[in-house]
């Protein structure tokens, strides 16, 4: 009887130890799993990876100013191009105006007042060597406005424009011209002048007429003996 109880007691103790070992093994397994999980977590958040993340962030931060600089440079290039185009246009307009002025001056200086003119011997008096009438003559232009009245005052704008017409009709420049006489030619809008070239001594009698808004226009030149 005692032997049976002893065996039963040993069996119970052995079963308890086996259960205790099983629980211990399970706990050890759980601890190992936790260790692996913690180690994996630490490795994923290691300083190396954090450093890589920081470097990546810094790269992105550095790229932003580069983009801004590129945009700023692009805007400056556009402004520079617009300024260059504007300067080029202004220079072109200026050169065009100069060319027009030069062409106008050359036309006045090289225009032969007798080219295409009808020339006849004699004239309105025995003192006339020949008479010249040119259908190509045009008004010399005017700075005057409003209703025109011929003014024979040597300090007036009208007088200055009449001298310009006399010079245009004869080819004698104003600084080479001596005005012998200048006055009315029978109507308020008609005038007549007698001039002499200082260098050659040639004398001319010139009839001019007023054209509204366009100035004085030569109508006839008589070269005097």
Automatic annotation (TrEMBL):
Question: Where in the numbering of this chain does the DUF1510 domain appear?
Answer: 132-224
Q: Where is the composition biased (Polar residues)?
A: 142-155
Stretches the record annotates as Disordered: 47-155
Residue ranges annotated as coiled coil are: none
Output compositional bias ranges, type Basic and acidic residues: 56-115
Q: Where are the transmembrane segments?
A: 21-44
- Which keywords label this protein? Membrane, Transmembrane, Transmembrane helix
Origin superkingdom: Bacteria
A Pfam family of the record is DUF1510
Q: Would you tell me the protein name for this molecule?
A: YrrS family protein
Q: Which lineage is the organism of this entry classified under, starting from the top rank?
A: Bacteria, Bacillati, Bacillota, Bacilli, Bacillales
